């Protein structure tokens, strides 16, 4: 694989529409493969998503709902299910008694760690034919693309450009 040479090669001009479309399709394929290949069962998916969001710190229900793009009642119901399974504990926010805080239990942390180990093994197996140099080059490109795309929306960029604000 010659990814490192291709990535480090100097740019000779703007990318063709075909190249941009191919990259977009490749990224979508990678995201789809990554999210589905080692995806837990549909029943476990909310658990994995919520435990991932709780991995760093205790969080408010409203924050969890906003991060997942669902209503607080949906998250509250899901948290109740996770609580019944021993994956999270809930308590009142001492700063605001109306708000609830949620944190992982050791069993919730173990679920998150198991999913991470499974994904890591899956990705390592898929990368076994790649050199360390190629993996580092791919990482640089993916991070740069993620950063660039994170700073703009295809909709706000188009409108800003049309209005001369690019």
Describe how the helices and strands are arranged.
Layout (H helix, E strand, L loop, with lengths): L2 H6 L8 H21 L7 H9 L5 E2 H8 L3 H13 L3 E6 L2 E9 L1 H21 L5 H19 L3 H9 L4
Helix pairs in contact: 3-6, 4-5
Structural summary, described in words:
This protein has helices spanning 3-8, 17-37, 45-53, 61-68, 72-84, 106-126, 132-150, 154-162, and strands at 59-60, 88-93, 96-104. The chain is mostly helical. A three-stranded antiparallel beta sheet has the order 1-3-2. The relative contact order is 0.12.
Which tags fit this structure?
166 residues, mainly alpha, Arc Repressor Mutant, subunit A, 3-stranded antiparallel beta sheet, 8 helices, 3 strands, 10% strand
Mean pLDDT: 79
Q: Any idea what the CATH architecture of the domain at 45-110 is? A: Orthogonal Bundle
Using the coordinates shown, work out and report the CATH topology of the domain at 45-110. Answer: Arc Repressor Mutant, subunit A
Between the first and last Cα atoms, what is the distance in angstroms?
Answer: 37 Å
CATH top level of the domain at 45-110 is Mainly Alpha
CATH superfamily of the domain at 45-110: Winged helix-like DNA-binding domain superfamily/Winged helix DNA-binding domain
The number of helical runs is 8
Structural class category: mainly alpha
Q: What form results from the Cα inertia axes?
A: elongated
Walk across the major sheet and give the strand order.
1-3-2
Q: Helix share of residues?
A: 55-70%
Strand proportion, as a percent range, falls in 5-15%
User: How can the largest sheet be summarized?
Assistant: 3 strands, antiparallel
Uncertain segments are: 1-9, 158-166
Number of strands: 3
| H-E order | HHHEHHEEHHH
Rounded to the nearest angstrom, the radius of gyration is 21 Å
